[in-house]
Design a protein that fits this description.
mainly alpha; 2 domains; elongated; two-stranded antiparallel ribbon; 3% strand; 295 residues
């Protein structure tokens, strides 16, 4: 997983003293690390990033201890600190409702474990032991990341039991936009979501104009201001005629959604997945509001 937790390594392993031989370190600053890892304000995404980082760090120090020892010696990481780090990882996993434990929780227990499991003379076997402990945990985190990506990558769904508007051409266009959004990977792809969104609002304006016309809501003197291409006017007119009472907020919403779609379409340099998703979600939301008004 390509992730970056918000860990300041200079604070995590601070310099204890400076000599002619270089910096000397005093081990892991556990107070700092606990504050970063176990803060009550952490989101699920932050917990996941921290858990991946902490798993990798624990794996690294135990592998160092079980092989050349360079990393552990350089930073003066003690047996007590190794235990505190493993307990912190177990605690974080339980906070995330992940069942994780190990047959060893510190350097001394790891030494006893590898001696009792045929790895006394083999760095390779010790690495295999560590892989058996930490790799399944990383796979669990990867699965969670996939689940979160699927959730975050899904465009908004209406609250109505039916997932379709009943306006077939617009339903088809929304389905096409959903597929484009799933496949989008770069700024041009995200900008193209603006094309999809603008196409949908144009179809919406045509649909609601036809409905208003067939319902006898348009006076002859109003038709010039509702001609083809006057997307905002048509949408706002439909909202005004189909609502009881003040419709100003919904009319303003129509204007904002159209402008979002147009802005996304023309942004070929700095568009992002987030901005494309917002534009697409807003169009889907507007389509469902208009359909509800016609119900």
């Amino acid at each position: 997983m390509n992730v970056q937790a918000n860990i300041d390594m200079d604070k995590l392993i601070p310099v204890a003293s400076v000599s002619w031989g270089g910096n000397e370190y005093g081990g892991v600053n556990l107070k700092y690390l606990r504050g970063v890892i176990l803060g009550s304000d952490k989101t699920d995404d932050e917990n996941l990033l921290n858990a991946v980082w902490l798993t990798g760090f624990c794996h690294k120090i135990f592998e160092s201890y079980g092989t050349d020892g360079d990393y552990v010696r350089k930073f003066s990481i003690t047996n007590e600190q190794s235990r505190a780090l493993m307990l912190l990882l177990i605690t974080l996993c339980r906070k995330m409702n992940i069942g994780f434990d190990s047959d060893f929780r510190d350097f001394d227990e790891f030494y006893s474990y590898w001696c009792g499991h045929g790895a006394k003379g083999s760095y390779s076997d010790r690495r295999s032991i560590l892989s058996d402990v930490f790799d399944p945990l990383l796979r669990e985190f990867e699965d969670r990341q996939i689940d979160q990506d699927v959730h975050n990558d899904s465009l908004v769904l209406p609250v109505s039991p039916s997932r379709k508007l009943g306006w077939s051409d617009i339903d088809d266009e929304i389905g096409h936009m959903r597929e484009d959004f799933k496949r989008a990977r770069d700024t041009l792809d995200y900008s193209n979501i603006g094309n999809d969104a603008e196409g949908i609002v144009e179809k919406l304006s045509s649909t609601v104009f036809d409905i208003a016309d067939s319902d006898g809501l348009i006076r002859d003197d109003e038709r010039a201001g509702l001609s083809e291409g006057k997307t905002k006017n048509r949408l706002q007119f439909f909202v005004e005629r189909k609502t009881d009472g003040d419709s100003k907020k919904l009319q303003e919403l129509c204007k904002v959604v159209v402008e979002l779609a147009q802005s996304m379409k023309h942004n070929r340099r700095t568009s992002t997945r987030k901005s494309a998703g917002i534009a697409a979600d807003s169009v889907i939301m507007l389509a469902n509001i208009l359909r509800r008004l016609d119900g």
